C-alpha cells in the first residue's frame, strides 16, 4: 500500500513521529471507505547517535550532573578538551567522538524506560592503545549493578550490553539510565566511538494497520511461533477518545515472517474518525501504537444541547438532550463556582465521565471546604455557549474517618471502616479531604511512597493523620525522588533540586499528624547525598498566611541530605517557603503560623532535625544598618513564621543542628532533650535561632554536640547558640553539658546584628571550648549573661574568649555568674573588658580574671556536690549552694529576672545570690511526701470508685494542693504542715462510700415489669418503692446505708406482686385447630389473595396462643381476625368451559358476518379473556363470561340474513307474525341483555 505513515516504536512511553499520508480506496473494504495506514518500527533511544547530526557535545556541570538527557555530554575535569567530536576515524560517515585521558567520559541519560522490558545497548569503538588506555562501555542506574565492557580492540568493533530495566534504587532512585564511555586510567592514545544504539530487545521488526487487518512483521532470525495471543490489542475512536475497546481478532494468517491479524472493519460514522490501535507484544512487554482513518458516512451529524445540571460538593452532572455523533470531552466544558455572593471562579475538572446511555456527563472537582458558617455554593457549567447552574450548601460536619490497611485493604473500597479500608498511599493522595476528616493507618503495617494528602482543615476542625488498631506505630517510608523548580535555602536559590519527603503539605493549613513512624532506610548510604530528604515538609508559595500544623508522638529517622549549608533544608521536619523567581508581580509574602512539635523522637537525620526557610528575610530600620548595610536581604520584607512550639521532644544523632529557629516570631522551645548533634557537618549546634524575634529556650537538656566520633571536625558545637539577626532571645533554665564547642555564643557581625539576647539561670557542666568558653562577637546590642553556673571539669584545655573584638559595637554584660575551672585555662582573646562589663562574678581556677569586675570573688562557691550532674535536667542538684557559700546575697539585683532560679525557687527576698541557684533552707517534707504516696495508693484501690463524689472531689483537691506544696521550693513550713493536715483529714473520709451497682440492676429489672399483668392492690406499693429507689440512685452522694435500705424495700415490693388471671383461649384454640385441618391443607384451591390473608391471620393467632402473657383483648382480636379471614376465602373457579369456548371463537371465520355483530363479539371476547387471566375471578364471573361469550357468538348476524332483513322492510306489514326483522331484533336484544349483565358484574367487582 502506498503512502503509509511511518512511526517509531514505543520503546517506553515510546515517542511517536508521524508523517502525513496519501489515501486510496481499498476494494476489499467496501465501496467508498478511504483508509490510511501506519507503521511503527523499532526506535533508537539515544540522541545524536552517529555524531553526523551537527550538534555539539554538551558540557558537564553541577546542574546537569544527574540529568544528561537529549545529547552527549563531555566529562573531563582533569583534562579539559580531550572529550570531543572529531572529523576523523569515523565508523560510518565523517564524524566520531573521542576520549583520551584518565577520567574522561562521554555520557548520555535516557529517560522513561519501560519497567520489565529488556534492552540492548551497542556502540562501535576502537582503542589505539588497549594496553595503556583502560576504557569501558558503561551502563548504570537501570536497577542493577553497573555493567561494564572493556574497549579492547584497536580496530572498530561493536560492543554490546543487554539489560532488563527495573528502575534505579537506593541513593540512585529517580535517576535516568546512563550510558557512557569512560577512561579508568591511562593518558596515552585515543578511543574513538561511533554509531550508538539503544533499542528494546524485541522479536518484532514493525507493526502496521489498515481497517480490518493488523500486520506484525518479525525479525528475519525469529524462529518462534507467530500468533495473535501474544498481543493485547485495544483501540479508541477520535469520536470517543475516552473509551478504549478491545479489538477482537477474528482470524489470522502467517506468511513468511508476517503475522496478519484480521478484525471486523470499523464502521463509518457521520463524521470522519481516526482509529488508534494500541497493541502490546507481551513477550517483551512492548507497547506499540498505530492508527488509521475511517471516512464519514455522509449521514447528518447529531449535536447535543445542555438541558440542565445537578451538583453536590465535589461533583456535577450535566444532562444532554441527545447522543451526539462526537462524544463530548472534558475540554468541551467550562466549570465555574462561586461561594455565597462572591464572583464566579474557574474550577479544574479532575475526572470526566461521559455516559452515552443516560446522555449525561459527570465531572468531579476539588470539594469546597467547610467553615464555621455555612457556604452557599453556585456551580455553573458551560457547554457549546449554553450555561446552566445548580446550587448546594457546604456545612462543617463532624468529618469522616478513612482507614488504610496495607495488607487487607483495597483501593476500590470506600475506606470508611476498618473492614473497607484503602490499601495504598496513592489512593489516599487521590482524595480531597475536608475539615474534621481523619486518615488512619493501621498499626503494625508499612507503606512506601510519598504521602501528599489534599485539602485543608479549618479552625476547630483540623484534618488528622494518625493510626488505628493495636501494635507498633505504622511505618511510612519514602518512595522515589522527584525534582522541584527551586528552593530558597539560607537566603540562596537552589534550582531544580531533587527532594524526597514522606509527607508533603503545599499551601495547606489546619493539619495534625501523630502516632506514626517515618523511616528512611537509606541513612547509611546518604552521608552526603544530593537529594533533600525529609520526613515531613510543609511548603508554601505566594499564598499569604497559613495556620496550624500539630505534630505529636512521631518517630522520625533516617532522612539525610547534602551536608552543605544549603543542606539545612533536609532532615526531620522542614518548613520551606518559596516565591516566584521570574515574575515579581506574582509574589505574595507568605508564612505558616501556629506550628507545634511535641512528644516526638527525631534521630539519625541530616543537616537539620527541624528547620524553617523563607525568602522573606529583609529587616528594615536604621538599627539593622547602623554599622554596615543589612547583610541578609531576601526577596522582600521580613515575614516570620509565628507562634512555633517545640516541647517534650528527644532529638539526637543529627548530622547538623538539632533545631534551627529561623525566621520565626513568638517561639517556645522547652523540655526537650537534644544530644549528639553536629555529627557530620562543618558548623552546627544543638539548638539555635536566626533572624527571629521573641524566642525562649527553657528547660532543655543539650549535650554532646560535636561528639568525639563525629565524621567531621565541626566548628561551633555549643549546646544553645544565639545567632545573628535575632531580637529578644531568652535562654534560661537549661542544662548544657559535654558540648565540644563551648558554653555561650552570640554569633553576630556588623552587618548581621542582634538585640537583647540573654542567657540566665542555666547550668553548664564540662562543656568544651572549641570556640572558647564564651564566643561573644560584635554587632550584638543589649546582650547579657547573668546568674549562670559554669563548671569546667578536668581533662580539657580551654580558652576563655574566642573571636574577641574591639570598636565599641557592643554593650555586653556578664553579671552574677559562677565559673569554676578544674582544667587548663588560657585567656585566649582575653576578657575584652572594653566591650564586656563584668560584675559580681565568681571565677575559680583562673590565672587571670576580668579587671573591670569590682566585686569579683575568687573563692570556692561551695556547691553541694559539683561535677555530679548526670542525664536529665533534674540531675544537677549538686550545684545548689551550701549555707556558707560566698555566693549567697552577693549578686547584683537585676530587674525582670524571670522571678525564679534554675530549680524554681522564687527570687523574692530582694537579695540576689550569684549563680543559677538561689539558696533556701530546705524544709522537712518527709511526712507530707509519705502521705502523698499513701493517698495515691488509695486511688488505686478497687473500692475508691465507690467513694461518694463530694468526698472524692475534696480528697483529690487536697492531694493536688499537697503535691504543689511539695514541689514548691519556696514553700514555708507552715504551708507544708497545713497541706499535710488537710490531706490527712480527707484520707480519713475515704470510708464514705456508696456502691449503687446492685441497686441499679434491681431498678432496671423492676422498670421492665408491666402493670397490666398484676393486680392493682399489689402494684401500688411496688411503684412507691421503685420511686424511692430511683431517687437514691440519682443521688451521687448517697451513702451505703441508704442504698441498702431502699434496695431491700424494692425487693420486698417486687416479691409481693400478684399476677392477674390468664386469658381464656379455648375458642381461639378450637378455631385454629379447625383452620389447620379444614382450610390450611387446601389453600391451593383458593385464590392467592384470599389464601394469603387467611395464612397471615392463622399465623398471628398461633403467636397469640403461644404467648403466655397474652391479654384477653389480644386473644379476642386474634379470634375475630381469623374468623373474617375464613369467611373471605374464595375458591379458584373452573375455567375449562370458558377456555374451550374462547378457543372455538378465536378459530371462527368471521368474514361472513356483519361488521357490527363481529365487533360486538370481539369486545365480549376481550372481556372473557381478561376473566380467564384474572387469578381473583370467582366462579360466578367465569360462568357469566362464558354465557356472555356464547350469547354473543350465537347472536352473530350473517351478511345474507342482514340483506334479507333489509329487503323485507319493503314488504312487511304491521302485525305480520313472520316478520324477519322482528325475530332478528329479538335475538339481538337477548344477546345484549346477557352481555350487559356480565359487564355490570365485572364493573362492580
Sketch the major β-sheet: 15 strands, parallel
CATH fold-type name of the domain at 58-200: Jelly Rolls
Number of strands: 75
What value does the average pLDDT take?
Answer: 87
Radius of gyration: 47 Å
N-to-C CA distance: 78 Å
Strand content: 25-35%
Task: Name the quaternary structure.
Answer: single chain
Second rung of CATH, namely the architecture of the domain at 58-200: Sandwich
Shape: flat
Q: Which stretches are low in confidence, meaning pLDDT under 50 for 5 or more residues running?
A: 1-37, 1209-1232
Q: Tally the helices: what do you get?
A: 15
Q: What's the CATH first level of the domain at 58-200?
A: Mainly Beta
Structural class determined from secondary elements: alpha/beta
**Any idea what the CATH superfamily of the domain at 58-200 is called?**
Galactose-binding domain-like
Helix content, binned percent? 10-25%
What do you see in this structure?
There is one protein chain. The protein is of the alpha/beta class and 1245 residues long. Among the domains are: 5-42 and 202-294, Sandwich (Immunoglobulin-like); 58-200, Galactose-binding domain-like (Jelly Rolls); 306-394, Immunoglobulin-like; 926-991, Single alpha-helices involved in coiled-coils or other helix-helix interfaces (Up-down Bundle), CATH 1.20.5; 997-1055; 1066-1127, Single alpha-helices involved in coiled-coils or other helix-helix interfaces (Up-down Bundle); 1137-1244, no CATH class. Helix content is 19%, strand content 31%. The protein contains 15 helices and 75 strands. The strands form 13 sheets. It has a 15-stranded parallel beta sheet that branches. It has a 13-stranded parallel beta sheet with strand order 34-36-42-45-48-51-54-58-62-65-69-72-75, with no helix packed on it. An eight-stranded mixed beta sheet has the order 37-40-43-46-49-52-56-60, with no helix packed on it. Strand 38 and strand 39 form a beta hairpin. Helix 2 runs antiparallel to helix 3 (949-967) and helix 13 packs antiparallel against helix 15 (1220-1244). The protein is flat. The chain starts with a strand and ends with a helix. The chain crosses the membrane at residues 1221-1240. It is an enzyme of class 3 (hydrolase).
